[in-house]
Every structure is written in C-alpha cells, then in structure tokens.
Amino acid sequence: MTLDTQRLQKTIHALLSTGKGILAADESSGTIKKRFASISLESTAESRRDYRDMLLRSEGYERHISGVILYDETVDQMSCSGHTFSQLVFSRGVIPGIKTDEGKEEHPFWGPQTVTRGLKGLGERLRAYTERSKGTLGFTKWRQVIVVDPPPSDGFLDYTMHVMAEQAAWSLQCGFVPICEPEILMDGSHSLDQCRAAIERTLRMLYKCMEEQHVDPALTILKTNMALSGKDALTDPSATVATATLKAFHHSLPTTLPGIVFLSGGQRSPKATENLNACALEAKQTNAPWVITFSYGRALQDDALKLWGGKAANVLSAQAVFLKRARLNGLAQQGKYDQRMEKE
Ligand code: 5MM
Question: I need a labelling partner for 127 at 20 to 30 A (CA). Which of 91, 166, 247, 251 fits?
Fold first, then answer.
C-alpha cells in the first residue's frame, strides 16, 4: 500500500501549528440533545445548524483553531453561509475532520467497560466522506472510553486498542490523518495516580497494536486526557497534573509521535486552560519531543452555548466568548496563559 505521506504530513503540521488547537464539535445526536437540554432547547436539524453556524462563522477563530472535528450530519449540512459546513471550515484555512466511530456498546462480560463500534464498512464510509466533503476533510477521529476503577483488563485493552489501530490503518489508506482518542474517564472517585497508571497501560497497548498492524505513529495524532483524579476530586493542583501527565507520556509514547491533543473530559473551562498551560511548561522542561495542544469540546463551547441560549440576538456575544476561550487556550498551548487574563 502506498500512502500519500506528503499530504498526511502537511495535515499534521497544520493541525499542530503553534498557538492553535482543535475544536471538537462532533457531538453525536444523543450528546447534542443533552447539551441543548441544558439550555432548554429542542435538538432539531435546524437548531443544530444554527448552533454550529454560530461557532463556525465566528470572525477570526482561525487564528487559534487549526481543525474542527465534525459529526456525520454536519459534514454536508448547509450552513447559513450558503456553503456546507466542511466547505465553510475549509474556506477559513481550518482543517475539517470527521468522527468515524459509531459510539459505544456494552460487552457481555467486560462491564463497566464498553466497546467502540464502527469498523464495519469503514473503508467505504471514508471514501464517501471524501465525496460528501468535496475532498476538504483532512483527518478522522475515533474514541474509546476507559473506566479507571475497576481497572481495565489486559484483554479489554488489547482488543479495543487493536480496533483503534485498525481504524487508523483504514484512515491512512484513505488519505486521512487518524486522531486516536483513548479517553480515560474522569467519572468515579479514583486517585490521580490510578488515572496515571491507566493512561500508561492504555497508551503502551495502543502503540504495540499499531506496530502489529504496521501503522506508523509518525502519521497519527494522539488525543487523550490529562492525569486527573475522579470528578469527586477536581482540585488537583495544575503542577501535579502536569508532572503526572508528562511522566505517563514519557513512559509510554514513541518519540516519533508528532503530537498530543488534550480532551477536556468534564474539567471546567478555565481549569482546562490552566492545566494545559502547566502541561506545556512541563513538556518544555522535560524536553518532550511531541507538540502538545488542545482538542476541547466542552471546555471551548460551554460558555458560548449558555450565552447563545438558542437565540439569534445572542450570536455575537456567544461568538465573543467562544473566541476568548480559543485565544486563551492558544496562549496556554505556548505556556503564556495567566489566570488574570480571564478577567480581561
Ligand atoms: C464533543 O464531544 C465528542 C463527542 O462525544 P459523543 O460521541 O459522546 O457524542 C467527543 O468525542 C470529544 O471529541 C472528546 O471527548 C473531547 O470533548 P471534551 O468535551 O471532553 O473536551
């Protein structure tokens, strides 16, 4: 198989540009319904279009955002700009990508762990995405969630990371940079150290599976979480988070991996920014060979969603809040964020 390595590397380089990160706007139908319920808005094709229109037509977001992860419906949905969303994003010099997993399913014996589905017919779906987006999509994203306590079994990690590696292989073959997202969940009352151990075990397994399937990590991006205590203990100091997170990465990641993009996982927006800043500084101090940046969903969107509230009259103020979060995270990516900036 011959890969278009040059195109893949160009996409990786653009996605990992200094001062920029990725917007995760790939909420599935069930998730966006929940998000809209929090502002008492019904989730319809029209309300979803209006919401994504608000975000993706913000003036100047391309200064801080290098890529946007889209959901199936959004790829060729018409935005109010008269272009499809994938074309709209692309026209701003931002790379659109697509969530390729089809969500999680219970396994008869592995509960509470669940297994991500979506491999069946993936090659065909990817080729269709190229057509549907008129060739604008540059990357894919596949997410597997992992519960920390009780700890995942080796068999579960082996199976799910093999599936993740296989979707990466299909993505590369179809010309997309695979963003692989093992998300160690914050839910529960586990300690930060239990989380760190789960990150290390999962990532070691992921790159072992990639090796077995001839997937070159240099052509992929990792999306994962920081080492954090469970949601019941959200007071972890940023410096502790950064030390544990980078330690886990140094113990488990290949040096050829180009970059890591963090998910926010339920952290409050300013905390996610503060922790990213600490991780960026720790990465420099420990000579980490990877670019480290953000690929937040909630931590970029929460404030804007609340302010928008489904009302056209609030679009400009919601866009301003979204831009502020994107800008502050862009600064945090460079280790230049200060909490006082929240008040500016
Ligand atoms: C935006 O949320 C994404 C979609 O989740 P579902 O498939 O459950 O609807 C999710 O994949 C997202 O890309 C990551 O979890 C990062 O989002 P957060 O909110 O954790 O930063």
Answer: 91
